[in-house]
Amino acid sequence: MLNNWLKIAFINYKKNWLSTIINLFGLTIGLTGFMLILMHWNDEESYEKWNPKKDNVYYFQGYYATDKFYGGAISYPFAEAALKQIPEVQDYVLMNGTGMSFKMVTKYKTTFQKDGFTVSDNFFNLFPFKLVSGSYKDALKNENSIALSTTAAKNLFGKTSVSGETVKIKSKSFVVTAVYELPKGNSQMKPEFVIKPAEQLKNDKEQWGNFNYGGFFLLKKDANPRDFERKFKDIIMFRAKRDAKPAGITPEKYISLYGPSDSLLTPIDKMKLHAEMTWFGKPDFKTLMILFTLSVLIVILSAINFINLKTAQASQRAKEIGVRKAIGSTKSALILQFLLETFLICFASYLLSLALTELLLPSFNQFFDKEMVMNDWHIYFYSFAMVLLVTLISGLIPASYLANFKAIETLKGNFARSRHGIWLRNGILTLQLMISSFFIIGGLIINQQVKYMMNKDLGFSGKQVFQINFNDDNNGKPWLKYERLKAEMAKIPGVESISFSESAPGSGNQSSSNVDYMTTSIGAGHGAMDYNYLQFMGVKLKKGRWLNPNLSSDTINNVLVNEAFVRKFGWTDDQVMKREIRPGFDYRPYHIVGIVKDFNTQGLNSEVNPVLYFHYRATEWKRFNVANILLKLKADDIDGTVKRLKTYWQNKVEPGYPFNSYFIDKRFAKTFETYQKQQTLFTILNAMVLMVALLGLFALSSLMIEQKLKDVAIRKTLGASDGTLIFGLTKQFLWITLIAVLISIPISYYLMNEWLKDFAYRIDMPVFPFILSLILLLILTFTVVSIKAYQATKVNLVKYLKYE
């Protein structure tokens, strides 16, 4: 019996070769997209799985109810209070810096070592990497302790058994206490060396409002993180009661002003994808879900093609089914037979998709900057499960439909003139065109949003601005190094002007704190800078004056603010110039001497925050953050100037260090990369969807028009023109297309409006994509169907009318 079913299946595959190829192609494309996106998802979910304590280690996020956002940082006193007052807490770790780089000197060699972390004492208690040498006990207890990865140890010493050896960083000696092996699996915790920020921890011990750390908590076994969050509110209230009274406000008001108002713990193995905010940035789970949903929709489109083509071929197999039923075949046996035929196509597509996925994986890895390989059984399991699901969905509907044919009716030859299956085919075709319409509308809106962001006036000009980052090797006084470099580099040919900013565009180094005026407080960013920085970047002055190097007060307590700062306080421009504010980063009041136009330095996914700008010498600790020099290069010989700068730097400034430099405009452009990738992926998926849909439409229209060839012959004999016949054969498909697009418009509007909500600067919902989607699909439908309709008008009249 099985052998007979297989023979029948291959006969029908050969007979309907076009439908077979379209089904194979559509399912292969759909399953390939599904596998690639599934691999991407699984890769994102696999972070921190190596950690044996992953079930008990959580990342801390603070919630700020007034501004309705989550912050990914915690202060030292809050973390210490949680350890002492919340019984569920066993230990904690504070992370202050990642991606640290230093020139390290040993008795063997000098090496520039990258990717270091600065963390608190008990880092290895929460992140127990495999120990190779030394001990984790008290590994970071002292400020001159350092732990190295096996890679860093080999770079510095040529071996891994180096505990007790000495490493010199910036004239300070560190003793190697431990050597560890980094985890093989995906992890955001891959420090090549680990040191303790002892001085900063000491300074922040009583600073409740200095949220300078990423916080990790180790909870006791079976402890509930929701209990931690509930008890953490008591710590928030304790701090508020203590500090609200001197400020003359209620604790509730204090919390609303300074926060946080609540907390959230996320397991570390969920942190990469599911946290609200982390020290490493904001996860983007929504985009991953969109991509996964779109990949599933392509598979659904392929299944729809299968259903449509199978039901359209029903008349060709009506007599076969009638004969089989007449000789005793059961309905269930027929359904199994048709399911087997479907499974063979789906399984062949599955094998082809595995090969195509392997072929496309290197390009996919390069696109997402990953190193995925097809060695995860989950990929094969879930993709094969999808094959079985597609087999059931795309096989069971036409199988049930075909198996329900009445033997007497089909053997009489009346089936071809019945209307069975028309509503089913039209309904499924409508769904297919709805999905295609959504992809066209979505692709056009994404393209317009990305183009809008790329062309938006940022309020500054980074053209020809070259940034060089330097290291603090000037006896702990980096601002003196900057001032020396500024004087020397101004003499290099091709350098037009020089400046400095703590938070240059694209750097992501925007510090923030509360800023108070009487009983009002706002959160605001702050950026230390040189006198000429704002003019250097082409920022416009709205009111007041620039900072002046000839006024000593401009290096003590005078600041400029942006328009967002004024709006946040609800002041007029005239009121601002009379205000004296108290920023949380200093003990002195500051005077506002100017207002600058808003300019965006952090990327267009967020609005311009309130910011105040001041000279780097104004606040004592800010001068220690001077770590770059900005140079505007003359346009006539940019390449030559960069070469001269590099030669000067490597020979006279930092020999042995890499030349860490970039152009500001190119660096800022990286903030758009995520959205440009979304645009590219949506365009590719859009092309795949249209290709699958149009091929399916062509095959379906071919089968349906073939069933009407006798009607065409009769009408042509009675004098109908080719144009009339073509329109008559295509108008049914045009009506279906019109209905599908009209249904898809409100759905597309809602979904794309939700996507646009993530952007602080967004386009208004355009009308053009919805109109274009309708026009484009009508044209494509007419073009595809009319090709077969035109061929039908050339029918041989004698062939179809000789028996009438």
Automatic annotation (TrEMBL):
Pfam families: FtsX (PF02687), MacB_PCD (PF12704). Residues 293-404, 685-796 form the ABC3 transporter permease C-terminal domain. GO terms for cellular component: plasma membrane. The keyword Membrane applies. GO terms for molecular function: transmembrane transporter activity. It comes from Epilithonimonas mollis. The chain crosses the membrane at residues 21-41, 288-309, 334-357, 377-402, 423-446, 681-705, 733-752, 767-790. This is Putative ABC transport system permease protein. It is found in: Cell membrane. Keywords: Cell membrane, Membrane, Transmembrane, Transmembrane helix. PANTHER family: ABC-TYPE MACROLIDE FAMILY EXPORT SYSTEM PERMEASE COMPONENT 2, MEMBRANE COMPONENT OF TRANSPORTER-RELATED. Residues 20-233, 433-646 form the MacB-like periplasmic core domain. Coiled coil: none annotated.
